[in-house]
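FW: tagging you since you asked about this chain on Friday. Here's the raw sequence from the shared folder, copied in full. Didn't touch anything.
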Amino acid sequence: MKLTCLIVAALVSIPFHASAVEAIDIKLTSKVAKFPADVPVDLAVTFTNVSKEPVRILGYQTPVVDGIQADIFTVAMERKPVDYIGRLYRRDAPADSDYLTLKPGESISGIASLWDNYDLSVSGTYAVQFKTELLDARMGRGTAVSNVVFLDIEGREPPLDPDDLDDEPQTKIVNGSNEKWKSCSSSQKNALIDARQHALNYANDSYDYLMAGSPVTRYTQWFGAYDSARYSTVRENFRKIRNAVDNETFKFYCDCNQSNAYAYVKPRKEYKIHLCSGFWPAPMTGAGSKADTLIHEVSHFRVVANTDDVQYGYSANLSLASTDPSSAIRNADSYAFFSAATPYNPYNPCAPTVTSHTGAPITAGWDGANCHVMNVPSGLTAFVHNNAYYVNALPGTYCPAPSGWDTANCYILPYPSWSTSYFVWSGNLYLTPGPGNACPAPSTFDGANCFVMPLPWGSTPFKWANNLYITPTPHCVIGGYDGAHCLVGTAPASRTAYLWGSAFYYGH
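HL: got it, structure written out here
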């Protein structure tokens, strides 16, 4: 069979109701079967209403209105799907204006450019099929598919992105971070600076919540029933989102005029975010805000969480969590809505407490940049190990009864010649008894051995010059002795402990 015979396959009828009263046929066609590396790979997609009633299709889920605006094709080479590299938008739940209506028998078509939107870097035969959800939610959900076409495509790199052809956007330094702009007014720049700070607050709060390991309402509402593997994925994704929002240089492009979208990114174009007309009137915080839109878009980047757009809108995302948790954890809007759900208000960057050596909490204070835990007393050597704070122990002079300080160690008793050994058992110091179960004072026979005294933590018994001693307990000015050093406390699991100057801190 020749390849050209496979270009246009039979139409596929997609019933969306059990009664099949309404249906749509989707045909995918190509003028040629072979595409040299310098030729665009453009396909025509035609939608025909073959029912007797009007049918609505979601415009941005087709290439009819403005080309490919979502991952609406299955493109595979040797049965291995290739990456979608096109735009990923943040949108509200579909409005009436987002739909196209087809009368009975009516057809509409659009041109889909695969080269701009899918990874065609490897030469070979590609199988292409239109496959997505198309119809109005009121008609019932269903997956619409076209015929499959097979195309011989010579490998090529993606076409040059207009973002890369522009002059370097103007740079403005804000709080030590770089924001870069293109086509943004002063008021838009200020709004984005504020939105990024609120997005960081959201990301910090979300990560702290997930590190606490309490998968209660907030998690299950947006990501579904608890599963340890899914929970770990969400937590790790928020760590990456937080680090990106906090540390990376972002390029903001105020050049998208789509009123039904907030923003878009291309997942391989790291930290370039295009803001659309729907972004500017949105509130600064809350669900569907400027701040959670940045969370949504940052999550899309391949080097961050590599999320998709499975569902848009508050209600649809709640439903997704309850019915399909595996999809919810890869859905960008789920991360956005989770981040804006009952965060600290205002956000307290030092809310997670340090756990002291006794288990009691130590509250840190915000110094404008990081969380100050405490100053280290002068004369001590401080260090951080395994995200915990330590200082050195000082030589001790305290000797618990019945021992006594002899200016060097803690003297207990003359060592009897008939005792064969001393030993420690269950934290107590013992001697073996003499004839007739004799025990030298102040030790006493306990029915088996001579009980001498409880041995303090960090103290060591020894025999010297026919006397029994213990070493004095090392002294901790702060913290508690752990056998080597003085443990002061452990930083929150979601933060990084560090020493700066003569004080303990953790990062925000």
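FW: The chain has four domains: 20-162, 180-340, 354-393+478-507, 394-475.
HL: agreed, and DSSP finds eight helices and 35 strands in the chain.
FW: great, closing this out.
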